Amino acid sequence: MSVDIDAFTALEANSRTFVLPIMQLRGDLRDAVTAYYLSTRAIDQIEDSPTLSIVSKAQLLRSIAAILQSRFEETSFAPIFRPHEQALEPVTLSLGRWLTRVPPASVAPQLWEAVSAMADRMAFWVERDFRIMTEDDLDQYTYAVAGSIGVGISNLWRWYEDVTTDQNDAIAYGRGLQATHMLWARKEDLARGVDFFPAGWTAEDMRTYAGRNLERARHYLDSLPEGSIWNFCHLLWDIIAATLDVTTKEKATLSRQQITIIAARYSQP
Q1: Domains of the chain
Q2: Strand, coil or helix: 265
Q3: What is the band of 5 on the pLDDT scale with cuts at 50, 70, 90?
């Protein structure tokens, strides 16, 4: 099975970092990771919306979590999205499609549970207004929105190829990715009134945090057998590391062309 054409278009439109690594994967595994990425991106865009109120964000996220814990179909999300259609991105409005049409049936319930739990955790942080005061708070937030995805994707490796990885290393991988993104998007986040840095932290403190977690993620990479999963994880790590490196520059830019050059080191299936 190949990736749904609408899903592939959504990947290209919504991901600078993940689209080329996902294309390293094969068949049902590619579809499962695509569905997982687009579903988590859909709820992430609710969390990040500059126009939705805190109350609306939390209600939407908790409603999504509840729907995923019941019997649902592609159209089940339409009633909760309808009052907010003007504020929601196409990737979010298509959440039902990503969760029902794209993932293989044998793994879909696993994805539904993971996305439901993530939506609940996001709602908690929305209601807290993203108040991150300490490194412990940062650990909790980066687990909620990224470390848990590292675990979820690792569970897909086990489902598809019986590849087992260390959960703590997977969480560190996700944390390193998220901290790098926080550095990359720092100006935009502050402009919309959100500060993900712990109290008193500088950009260098966040770089140290990201680097420490990415270093631990090397253990994760070392545990993988060669093949498409190895390619996905190493390419993604290389893109994150390159992004972290450019955050030291006054104008942090890493173009799609530069990412394509990085990806050229890896053979596609």
Answers
A1: 1-129 (1.10.600.10), 131-268 (1.10.600.10)
A2: coil
A3: low
